[in-house]
Design brief:
single chain; mainly alpha; 3 helices; 0% strand; elongated
């Protein structure tokens, strides 16, 4: 029978949090988010950060600037994707405009009978 206290939890197999605990789930969730973002940076169709041929310049500062611009581009793409999904969930477009909506040109030309306007001061010639 295996006892938890008898296990060697030092060195190579040490864990900060017990297996299947809420703290470990939080930690692995954060790590998965970071790894997902790193994968997004490496996508071949967009930034392709791991492809060194896309940034053929010499010097650490130039390389760092190009990488910063690629990360900026990935952030903008991520925000746009989030906002588009949020907008799609938030406001579905109505399928029935309802009875108050004019349906054609003739409806726009009809005077509004509910408006209480004074008569014109003079008539048109």
């Amino acid at each position: 029978m295996c006892d938890r206290d008898a296990l060697d939890t030092t060195g190579k197999y040490a864990q900060d949090y017990p297996y299947d605990s809420p703290q470990r789930s939080t930690m692995t969730g954060r790590r998965n988010a970071v790894e997902s973002y790193n994968g997004m940076l490496k996508e071949k169709d967009h930034e392709a950060l791991e492809d060194g041929g896309r940034r053929r310049v010499r010097g650490f500062a130039k390389q760092a600037l190009i990488v910063a611009l690629m990360v900026f581009s990935a952030n903008v793409r991520s925000i746009r994707t989030f906002m588009q999904g949020y907008h799609d969930k938030l406001s579905p477009s109505p399928t029935d405009p309802g009875p108050d909506c004019p349906t054609g040109r003739r409806d726009l030309d009809k005077p509004d009978s509910s408006a209480d306007e004074p008569p014109p001061l003079r008539t048109a010639a």
